[in-house]
């Protein structure tokens, strides 16, 4: 069969991106799991438009909630041409009934355990409507299909070495969607890195671990870093801030070429952290923790969330200066979002604070999908945009980059300059986070392909449906 794998995407900025840092591992991994007798092609909508034609026998599509409206439009158009559509990923895992209105097959949870079965069932014309993937040990996984990647990604070598996270932050679906914390054999991880050379020097130099919390298992992590130390790479990933309490781990991170760490600091105020179960963080310890990473030359990227109950619009905007004061090298700024599958969703729903008239584009991390306690949704959105402009003003960007020149390793300096320049250029050119348009304002991506109009069931009509269990 001819299989077209699509990682769906909708630009979250007014004019999208001029260049793209890293591809999600989803498409490459699914392609690697596909038996070689099938003809596979991979499309990332982030970098190129997906053709809507009847050339593939099967389209496999993955997407987040914020992209669901557009992804369903694609699915409807393929099905109108007679192409079978299989959908997976975090959105359809929790909104199975809605997804089945637009696709032939829904895959919940992790696909490794069912993908081969789905393909066999498609070939014999006996496919089921829903397959429940199981969380299995990460042993024997193939090397991602880097050969199928588009050439426009700055860092193409992205891989997963672990899956899951032991923490239970109330806004995060990872503990439910990817239960447990599992590690791959170190030899398999090193194989994937060594087996994936790239033409451009910086592409071959950098390894991006697409993990939720790479360094949780200290013994395993130290074994991995000892092996990495002999590869002469720069690597980056996401981890929890408690890594700074292990001096041996920090030393190994430095020796193995750690260029940057993304920390989910979320808030600079302890009541906010406690309200979402982020008990592993202590706001008063941030500055010292970041300094310890800087001592090793490691660039600190930090996620911050706007929309906690005790925040004010003025306080949100001031966060830009506070982030700089504790030493954050690259801030990532999002809005609290009640995704289904999270305790936050259940809590906001019980309180009647999920905004039922707002559909999926409001769930892209830059929109407001709930009623804040101390301000209007519009005030929260405005405060977030003001924070974004302030955090990436020329002065703030210059201050962070200049500081990094004296504190960071060569890899850390490159990362700080690239990421701050990326967002700083957007701020200078007015390419800010986009405001969500109403459904009637959305331009159909492929008007030449006749298909039934995309129908999204109003959220108020589907909220009472129980989600299918995620294995």
Write the layout of secondary structure elements.
Layout: E1 2-7, H1 25-33, E2 39-44, E3 58-62, H2 68-80, E4 84-88, H3 90-94, H4 96-99, E5 105-108, H5 115-123, E6 130-132, E7 158-159, E8 162-163, H6 174-177, E9 182-183, H7 186-194, H8 201-205, E10 206-209, H9 218-228, E11 234-239, H10 247-255, E12 258-266, H11 270-275, H12 286-295, E13 299-306, H13 313-325, E14 330-335, H14 343-350, H15 377-391, H16 394-407, H17 410-428, H18 459-462
Parallel strand pairs: 1-2, 1-3, 3-4, 4-5, 5-6, 7-10, 10-11, 11-12, 12-13, 13-14
Antiparallel strand pairs: 8-9
Helix pairs in contact: 7-9, 9-10, 13-15, 16-17
Task: Describe the 3D structure.
It is a single chain. This protein is α/β, with parallel strands linked by helices and 471 residues long. The chain has two domains: 2-136 and 441-462, Rossmann fold (3-Layer(aba) Sandwich), CATH 3.40.50; 161-428, tm_1862 like domain (pyruvate-formate lyase- activating enzyme). Helices cover 35% and strands 14% of the residues. It contains 18 helices and 14 strands. It has a six-stranded parallel β-sheet with strand order 2-1-3-4-5-6, with helices on both faces. The longest helix has 19 residues, at 410-428. The radius of gyration is 22 Å and the shape is globular. It starts with a strand and ends in a 9-residue tail after the last helix.
